[in-house]
Amino acid sequence: MIELEGLTKRYGEKLAVNNLTFAVRPGIVTGFLGPNGAGKSTTMRMMLGLDNPTAGDVRIDGKHYAQLKDPLTYIGALLDAKAMHGGRSAFNHLLCLAQSNGIPRARVAEVLDTVGLTPVARKKAKGFSLGMGQRLGIAGALLGDPRILMFDEPVNGLDPEGIHWIRNLMKSLAGQGRTVFVSSHLMSEMALTADHLVVIGQGHLLADTSMSDFIEQNSRSYVRLRSPQQERLLDVLHEAGITVVEAGNGTLEVDGGSPEKLGELAATHQLVLHELSPQQASLEEAFMRLTAETVEYHAHTDEPGMTPPVQEPPLARPGWGESWDRAKDEGAR
Ligand SMILES: Nc1ncnc2c1ncn2[C@@H]1O[C@H](COP(=O)(O)OP(=O)(O)OP(=O)(O)O)[C@@H](O)[C@H]1O
User: Which residue owns the Cα nearest ligand 1 atom 2?
Assistant: First the structure.
């Protein structure tokens, strides 16, 4: 378990992490999301004692990182895959880590095998590709067989097979009851891997919730209808008091409607439907919606060939976006 309480980091004028309180629990994969510059790496560095908090506290299984004897046996982390002595072989790099943490030498060969680097164990790390470097960093995190694992952008540089491998590795580590905390910019990957999400924006906590609740609370769900008898269908829906949006190309969208009810209504009026499909936004859309106001670095979309983002109708009910507005108001007081 990793517990943060009021964790805050200020760099001069810049409040990089602002009063974060949350816990990362064992037995599940927790995803850590936020736009560029949100404060994810700073938070992870403070968890590992690499940066001192300006205020607040972070504990690893109830202790500060500095109090842990042989810390690699409590928490293993991949922060920066390039942060290693390139002149050493993969084997020697891991051996140095093992020796400084009271970990038996035999464990080095085990973790090299786990990450698939046995054939290059004696090769110098500076010749490694980005993907091989990631694998070596992951081997270092696994070395002490720790109960807690933390990965910052672990799939960076990995090919599809590597991405699939790390996804299964994280799930199996969590399945063994370990605490797994992982940041990634790849939303589709996060949606497949994480059970729980912690989302931050400009240093603030925006969400600490299950993946399914996050998507439900921050995205629009609607039913898409297409019918060759669209005018008649519109009349029937209006008569039934159902609000419908004409989305163009002959499609109608009903916000929050039940597909069963809409299908039965069409059947009662003997209307032909060519499409009746429930639509749920992706994690990516939910994330974009929640963090829209907290993105520090926007690309310009007014260049030739670029289309501006589509404006979606407002949420039917309060989502995390409201929490962010509240957080800003509270911050301003
Ligand atoms: N050593 C530092 N000195 C000054 N400012 C810093 C320092 N480290 C981080 N920052 C600032 O703190 C903020 C948070 O940075 P951080 O790297 O933690 O964000 P992040 O969420 O990890 O971003 P990214 O997704 O781009 O890696 C940024 O505005 C960054 O410029």
Answer: 11
- What atom in ligand 1 is closest to the CA of residue 9? 12
Number of residues that this document lists for the chain: 333
Q: Is residue 27 part of a domain?
A: yes
Measured between alpha carbons, how far is 48 from 260 in angstroms, rounded to an integer?
A: 51
With respect to residue 11, please indicate whether it lies within any of the assigned structural domains: yes
Asked whether residue 236 falls in the same domain as residue 198, the answer is no
CB 280 within 8 A of CB 222: no
Looking at the fold, whether 6 and 81 belong to one and the same domain comes out as yes
The strand order across the sheet containing 251-255 reads 245-248, 251-255, 221-226, 275-280
How many angstroms is it from 273 CA to the middle of ligand 1? 52
| Residues 272, 188 within the same domain | no
Decide if 109 is inside a domain.
yes
Q: What string of pLDDT tens digits covers the 333 residues of the chain?
A: 999 999 999 999 999 999 999 999 999 999 999 988 899 999 999 999 999 999 999 999 999 998 998 889 999 999 875 666 667 889 999 999 999 888 999 999 999 999 999 999 999 878 888 888 889 999 999 999 999 999 998 887 788 888 899 999 999 999 999 999 999 878 888 889 999 999 999 999 999 999 888 888 777 788 999 999 999 999 999 999 999 999 888 899 998 678 999 999 999 999 999 999 988 777 888 788 778 776 665 555 444 444 344 334 333 333 333 333 333 344 443
ipTM score of complex: 0.96
Residues with CB under 6 A from ligand 1: 11, 14, 16, 34, 36-42
Q: Which domain holds residue 29?
A: 2-216
Rounded distance from Cα 126 to ligand 1 centre (Å) = 26
